[in-house]
User: Fold tRNA-2-methylthio-N(6)-dimethylallyladenosine synthase from Sphingomonas carotinifaciens.
Amino acid sequence: MKSNPKTFHVKSFGCQMNVYDGERMAELMAAQGLTATDDANAADLVVLNTCHIRERATEKVYSDIGRLRKHARQQGHDPMIAVAGCVAQAEGDEIVRRANVDVVVGPQAYHNLPELVAKAAKGEAALDTDMPLASKFGKLPGRRKVGPSAFLTVQEGCDKFCTYCVVPYTRGAEISRPFAAIVDEAKALVGAGAREITLLGQNVNAWNDAEDHGLHGLIRTLDRIEGLHRIRYTTSHPNDMTQGLIDAHGDVESLMPFLHLPVQAGNDRVLKAMNRAHSRDSYLRLIDRIRAVRPDIALSGDFIVGFPGETEAEFADTLSLVDALGYAQAFSFKYSPRPGTPAADMADQVEAEVMDDRLQRLQAALNRDQHAFNLASVGRTCDVLIERRGKLPGQMLGKSPWLQSVHLIGDHAIGDVVTVQLSAAGPNSLTGTQTLRAAA
Ligand code: SAH
Ligand code: SF4
Ligand code: F3S
Assistant:
């Protein structure tokens, strides 16, 4: 039996929504009177907020649990360990069997974390991986202090069932949060210090409501919030990219010129086997339409190499798509078979060495394009949102509208928006020279 914890530490491993969930769990525990600590080894309660998207993510959780327990034992300390997030959802029972943990809670049930912790303190089993119809959001405490750039989940779940992906199983069916609840949370975030809000969803551009506002309607409403300078959204699916949303990129000033639009592969046979429901050509045409209204938009994407059956010629189609589009940044992964997904049972799984080689070639092309995009920004004047202090004296770090990291020297407060001229570019960041100080 363990006593009720007084301090806690939340560690998030996954996507931006996972990070957002981690923040909300921290707010929830703080509202219960627990104190947050940065030191996972000293906390009475450690929440491991896990991700299930690729193999190593799951293994890392088990090794983390082992390390935490060992370290704690050496200190004569016996922390309560809670496994939250998508591994908890997918492998809850397995975790209980395989690891020494006190609480298991899924991504749709974490509003119950305080009750589960209380149960565990009494020595009772504490596992909740339900996906209740009533959403958790109404049961969470309000937003308090946040940084200048905040996340806000507006849509959750996925009905797309790409054949490689666990998300539809770990997050459940697509749901959109109500318009008014989102606007209220956005206002609370701005009141708590946010200058930029990134709207989150597994398919964020599928967000909608009974009045058919669409994501673009929501963005247009948020655009009118005093003190909110920047709006971003992620992740989008090509098939949910409506004309209304494309138009918003043409005329909503606070909507930043950045679009993360995963394509995964450049070959139609592979896309079909992935159940992506878009083709190479439809994706290329979509990007043309977006660039027509916002020529400077920074394009970002996700790629998978070595999907089962992918041939060298099919992989070459991914490289040629990258060459044709010029991504400003991107994430690329080796295909990882996930238990329970259709692709895991497909014949012709690609060998590890072949995947390594393809990933290297793809990343070389993506890095080249990212550097080229950064170099092409030199000379531009743009706003930079100051997010934190840099390592050098007087140095500040912020983001350009195109989500590039910008270093500059100056006496700014975190959350200031400064107008700078971009003067030099490296592969991962730019340097800016201040030209004007704008209002925070
Ligand atoms: N909902 C988003 C993101 C899903 S997960 C979307 O549809 O774009 C983020 C990325 O992880 C995916 O875009 C994909 O590139 C990658 N991914 C998902 N499952 C994977 C798997 N089994 N193996 C390798 N990469 C995977
Ligand atoms: Fe996964 Fe596909 Fe859904 Fe994205 S759209 S979350 S890749 S199933
Ligand atoms: Fe990972 Fe779950 Fe996000 S599997 S990528 S934490 S939705």
The longest helix spans residues 352-377.
